[in-house]
Amino acid sequence: MQNCLVTGCAGFIGSHITDYLLNRNFSVIGIDNLSTGREKFLENNIDNKQFTFINEDLLNYNKIHKYFKDISIVYHLSANADVRFGFNHPKKDIDQNILVTSNVLEAMKHNEVKKIIFSSTGSVYGEHKTIPTPEDAGFPIQTSLYATSKIACEGLITSYCNAYDMQSWIFRFVSIIGERYQHGHIYDFFKQLQSNPDQLHILGDGHQKKSYLYINDCLNAIDQALNFYNEKNNIINLGYDGYCEINESAKWITECLNLNPELTYSGQKRGWVGDNPFIHLDVTKISKTGWRPECTIENGVRKTVKYLSENKWLFE
Ligand SMILES: NC(=O)c1ccc[n+]([C@@H]2O[C@H](COP(=O)([O-])OP(=O)(O)OC[C@H]3O[C@@H](n4cnc5c(N)ncnc54)[C@H](O)[C@@H]3O)[C@@H](O)[C@H]2O)c1
């Protein structure tokens, strides 16, 4: 039986991965400092004897390295996952993403853990000219501290793998949506419409084109990729082979809520500093595993709105 360690186990994606692994009868140690994570996301597992929750800050190496003992695989999900506010607190991406990843890798080396799954991002491609963007596209000028920090993490991980006989699966996600989603434009729109159902302000001109992937499709893709790719460093785009305009998404969201608000726009091509107006990843590599997403972007957006409507505590 596999012993897994999940960092960021109380977050949106990390809690789903924790469920996924426990459902397959693996043992899971989950570490999270609950900075953006929610204990409620773990409530189904907290009494499971196969699950151990450690409420600890991964920046504190001395407190965390012991939990990596006898672990076969690390799912490293913890991060500052918010792209938009990066320049409001420039050290956050450095600390929460780069330094934490360095601590995770040191703890793995110290305990001879050989496998790491890492949640990177399609943002590393910046505003690439090649769309859909494949894994070997190369990195243009960076526009967000978040993507910059994820590139640094990828560099740390691949160099540790080469030096210390480890193996990595690095997934460059598009935006993931679905149950337990708690940051991003659907959350922001929902929140705005809660306080004023008659108006929705959209950052940018509404024509930004974005790809989204439903959480269950993301989990299945990770599983398929782990079974299919076995290089030392496996770098894989994870996305839906398509995209929508933010205006379309706004239409689906307001339809789901039975609202007809006036739409206003901040007007520019990019919603904020670091926003990429066109994200569509080439998913040929993950498709070679036989994986196909089951949920369309529209259905994923609608499921997310339904979840938020039923879980308004997330906005408290
Ligand atoms: N959600 C997306 O659309 C998306 C897209 C691309 C990449 N990613 C990446 O996937 C991962 C998970 O994202 P998410 O959306 O679930 O975010 P999230 O904020 O819901 O989860 C991150 C978790 O990490 C925890 N955490 C943060 N810093 C910590 C620290 N120092 N010590 C211990 N725990 C800490 C938080 O409490 C939280 O539970 C992140 O690495 C993110 O960058 C997410």
Question: Can you tell me the CATH architecture of the largest domain?
Answer: 3-Layer(aba) Sandwich
Q: What fold name stands as the CATH topology of the largest domain?
A: Rossmann fold
How do the strands line up in the largest sheet? 3-2-1-4-5-6-11
Form type:
globular
Helix and strand content put the structural class at alpha/beta
Tell me the radius of gyration: 19 Å
* Small molecules in complex: nicotinamide-adenine-dinucleotide
- Strand fraction: 15-25%
Spell out the CATH superfamily of the largest domain: NAD(P)-binding Rossmann-like Domain
User: What's the CATH class of the largest domain, please?
Assistant: Alpha Beta
The helix tally amounts to 9
Number of domains in the coordinates? 2
The level of helicity is 25-40%
Got a strand count?
Answer: 13
Order of helices and strands: EHEEHEHEHEEHEEEHEEHEHH
Query: Which stretches are low in confidence, meaning pLDDT under 50 for 5 or more residues running?
Result: none
Question: Averaging pLDDT over every residue, what do you get?
Answer: 96
Q: Give the termini distance in whole angstroms.
A: 40 Å
What oligomeric state do these chains adopt? single chain
